[in-house]
Structures are given as structure tokens and as C-alpha cells.
């Protein structure tokens, strides 16, 4: 009973700045009714995260929720993916996606339901596991949306395809589901929507933009080869540490001097591994890079430039040719359909009020939601943000010049889950009803 009162109070507080007509809206009422059980589901998901490609128990929970709501459910699509379909007469088809995987991060939020789960990465490294990207809020809102739509069938016509996707964090999930017949075994969508919680917006605020929203992401490994030996006799060696340092420095010129300043691009060396002792020059070193862009042309220019620089620096050092490997799969850019983004922005502003809907800049983070449109460019698609920063922490950060907030993937990221789930469930339901309206 106490949880119900708290949840209802939270929803009512968020409606204070919304238009008066929206405060009695059936979508908001339905969402508020479901919120206590959605929060219980959220806490369970948060406490029991699973890594990419291992979302077995998580998928089973979501499949059970969809079956209970009356959807036709298919499990193990593209691995652990869940597809829940509800047909309700003739009309458009809308796909609504949530991602399920956690991250290899040891949680430090201090929440009473914090994850204590441990596991191993594909590289066999033992680690804590956490929903540090808050996919647990995505899943809870997904369940809230499918429940709302099932209960409001008299208000819409068409087909809803609810997709619970595995392996977003390693960019394998959407591709695996598409390869497993997502658009042939199930109704192909006319529209596709998703949201992501934001660590850069106050809780309950929606951020939306047309066009490029997330960047493409490539992971590149450079194995720098040398000739090892004693640290006291460097002239008898070809030092891969020094060569690796030269490569790192030279890579900075790719964005600074080879990419048009009006194009966005990132080349970051996230790891430099080499050597075992102070006085041993190793045989090789390893550089791990992340590469980001918005267009195929810029992406290819960066990848070509990385290989050229690595091999060129090796020639200059008289060292063996390095091995440059671009890992597969890569994450393509996610681009929201201009007209549909504008349509949703208008819809959300009318529902939540201008103070809770903002234009946001693109991000160089990655999201494999873009694959759903790349597979069929006729689909109108939008991914938007729902802010998760608790208001007191947001206010404190603004007083400190915007500093001090944990980011997505931080061990300390703890969004205001009630506001994220309530806002996202309502927004997603309203967006679906707008497309499928009778």
C-alpha cells in the first residue's frame, strides 16, 4: 500500500507542469495504475542483471509478462530475443524495442537492491555485473507499454510488435534478431520506436532530435610488433612501447587534420597494453581503439587512416608490420526520421508540456537500434531520451557548473527509476496510439 501511494504521488508531481487536459488522460491513469508493479519488476531486474548474449532469465521474465498480457510470444529469436505480437484489426504496424543486457561493472550505487551478481566476460575475466546503462528501466517501461496497449484495444487498430532485444552493449543483438527473421517471421513494421534513459537530463524530461542521434562505433585492435630484449640495451631491440606511443600520437591527427571540421569524429585509444617488467622490452604491445562517426564516408576514412598510420610508423621505426583488426560486428549510426521526430516532439509537448520536452544534440555514443531501419529504410523510426538524473542531484550539479554527475556505464549511475519508467511508459503508449489511432 505504501509503495502505491509513493508511486502515485510521484506521477502526480510530474503532472504539475503538464497541460490540464492531459492530467485526466487515460494513458496517464493507466500508467500510474501499473507503476507499483513495474517498480517491483524494475528492482528485480536491477538486482539480477545478465551480460550480453546471456540474458536467459531476463528474457523469460519479459516473455512471461507479455504472455500474461495476451500477446502471442516467440522466444529465442536471434539468441535470447523475445518478440510479442498483438494484432487488433487492419492498420499500421509499430515495433517497440527495449534492450535487456547488463554490463561488466561492479555496482557502487548503494541502492538497497543493488546487484551483487558476478560473472565472466567473453575474455574470461571475472567481474561484477550491473545495469549500469539502466536497461532495467527500459524493460520495465516496455512492460508498462505492452500492458497499457493490451488494456486499451478499443482505442487502436493495427499491430504492435514488442521486441525485447539481447546484446545491445556489444552491438550483436539487433543484427542477430534481423538475421533470425524478425521482418519475415513477424509483421514488418511501418514505424519503430525506442527510448534510452539519460544521465544528462533531469528525471522525467524527454530529449528528442531529428536526424543523427547516435554515432557508428568500431572497435579496432592494433598489435604493435617489435623485437624484445633487455631494457639496458635498447639499441639491440625494436621497442614496441615507443612505436605504440608514436602511433597513439599520430592518430590524433586523423580528426584534427584529415576530417572536415564540420564532420563529427572520434578516435580514442582506450587501452595500451605491453610489457611485464621494468627492465624488459617486450616483443609486442596492444592498442585498443574506439572509433566513432555519423556517416559511412567519415567512418571509412578513419579506419583507412588508422591502418595507414600504424603501418607507416612501423616502417619509420624499422619494425615489423603491425596487425590492424577491425572487430565485427560494428555499430551503425542511429538516425531518427526527421518528420516522425517532429511529429513525436509535437505529441510529447502537448502531453507533458514544454518544460519537459527538449531539443538535444547528437551524441557520439553508440546504439544498435539503427539497424532496424538500415534493414528497411522505408520504416519511420525515432529513438528519444528520457532523463533520469534525480532532481536534487541535478540542482546540485547545476550549481557546480554541471559537474559531478555520474554518466551512463558508471558504477554509480542510479536514475530516478520511477520518473523514467512512468514517463517512458506514458510516452511510448501515447506514441503507439498516435500511429494506430482509430
UniProtKB/TrEMBL annotation:
GO terms for molecular function: metal ion binding; N-acetyldiaminopimelate deacetylase activity. The keyword Transmembrane helix does not apply. Mn(2+) binds at residues 133, 135, 169, 196, 409. Coiled coil: none annotated. The keyword Signal applies. This is Peptidase M20. Keywords: Hydrolase, Manganese, Metal-binding, Signal. The Mn(2+) ion enhances activity. InterPro entries: Amidohydrolase (IPR017439), Bact_exopeptidase_dim_dom (IPR036264), Peptidase_M20 (IPR002933), Peptidase_M20_dimer (IPR011650). Its cofactor is Mn(2+). Pfam families: M20_dimer, Peptidase_M20. GO terms for biological process: diaminopimelate biosynthetic process. Residues 219-314 form the Peptidase M20 dimerisation domain. Residues 1-22 form the signal peptide.
Amino acid at each position: 500500500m505504501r509503495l502505491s501511494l509513493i508511486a502515485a504521488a510521484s506521477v502526480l508531481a510530474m503532472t504539475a507542469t503538464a497541460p490540464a487536459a492531459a492530467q485526466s488522460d487515460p494513458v496517464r491513469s493507466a500508467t500510474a495504475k501499473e507503476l507499483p508493479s513495474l517498480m517491483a519488476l524494475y528492482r528485480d531486474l536491477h538486482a539480477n542483471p545478465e551480460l550480453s548474449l546471456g540474458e536467459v532469465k531476463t528474457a523469460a521474465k519479459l516473455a512471461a509478462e507479455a504472455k500474461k498480457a495476451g500477446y502471442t510470444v516467440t522466444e529465442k529469436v536471434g539468441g535470447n530475443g523475445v518478440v510479442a505480437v498483438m494484432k487488433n484489426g487492419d492498420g499500421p504496424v509499430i515495433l517497440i524495442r527495449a534492450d535487456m543486457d547488463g554490463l561488466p561493472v561492479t555496482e557502487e550505487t548503494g541502492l538497497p537492491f543493488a546487484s551483487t551478481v558476478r560473472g565472466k566476460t567473453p575474455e574470461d575475466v571475472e567481474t561484477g555485473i550491473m545495469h549500469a546503462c539502466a536497461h532495467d528501466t527500459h524493460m520495465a517501461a516496455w512492460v508498462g507499454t505492452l500492458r497499457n496497449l493490451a488494456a486499451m484495444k478499443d482505442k487502436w487498430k493495427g499491430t504492435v510488435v514488442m521486441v525485447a532485444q539481447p546484446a545491445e552493449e556489444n552491438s550483436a543483438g539487433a543484427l542477430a534478431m534481423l538475421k533470425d527473421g524478425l521482418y519475415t517471421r513477424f509483421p514488418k513494421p511501418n514505424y519503430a520506436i525506442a527510448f534510452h534513459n539519460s544521465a544528462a537530463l533531469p528525471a522525467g524530461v524527454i530529449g528528442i532530435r531529428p536526424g543523427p542521434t547516435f554515432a557508428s562505433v568500431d572497435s579496432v585492435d592494433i598489435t604493435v610488433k617489435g623485437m624484445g630484449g633487455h631494457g639496458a640495451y635498447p639499441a639491440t631491440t625494436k621497442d614496441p612501447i615507443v612505436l605504440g606511443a608514436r602511433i597513439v600520437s599520430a592518430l590524433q591527427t586523423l580528426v584534427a587534420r584529415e576530417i572536415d571540421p564540420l564532420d563529427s569524429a572520434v578516435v580514442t585509444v582506450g587501452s595500451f597494453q605491453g610489457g611485464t617488467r621494468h627492465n624488459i622490452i617486450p616483443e609486442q604491445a596492444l592498442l585498443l581503439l574506439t572509433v566513432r562517426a555519423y556517416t559511412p564516408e567519415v567512418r571509412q576514412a578513419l579506419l583507412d587512416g588508422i591502418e595507414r598510420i600504424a603501418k607507416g610508423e612501423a616502417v619509420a621505426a624499422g619494425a615489423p608490420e603491425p596487425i590492424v583488426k577491425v572487430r565485427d560486428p560494428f555499430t551503425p549510426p542511429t538516425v531518427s526520421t526527421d518528420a516522425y521526430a517532429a511529429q513525436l516532439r509535437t505529441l510529447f509537448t502537448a502531453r507533458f508540456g514544454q518544460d519537459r520536452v527538449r531539443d538535444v544534440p547528437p551524441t557520439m555514443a553508440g546504439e544498435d537500434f539503427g539497424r532496424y531501419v538500415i534493414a528497411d529504410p522505408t520504416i519511420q523510426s525515432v529513438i528519444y531520451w528520457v532523463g533520469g538524473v534525480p532532481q536534487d542531484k541535478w540542482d546540485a550539479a547545476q550549481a557546480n557548473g554541471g559537474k559531478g554527475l555520474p554518466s551512463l556505464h558508471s558504477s554509480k549511475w542510479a536514475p530516478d527509476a520511477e520518473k523514467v519508467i512512468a514517463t517512458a511508459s506514458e510516452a511510448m503508449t501515447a506514441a503507439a496510439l498516435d500511429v494506430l489511432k482509430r
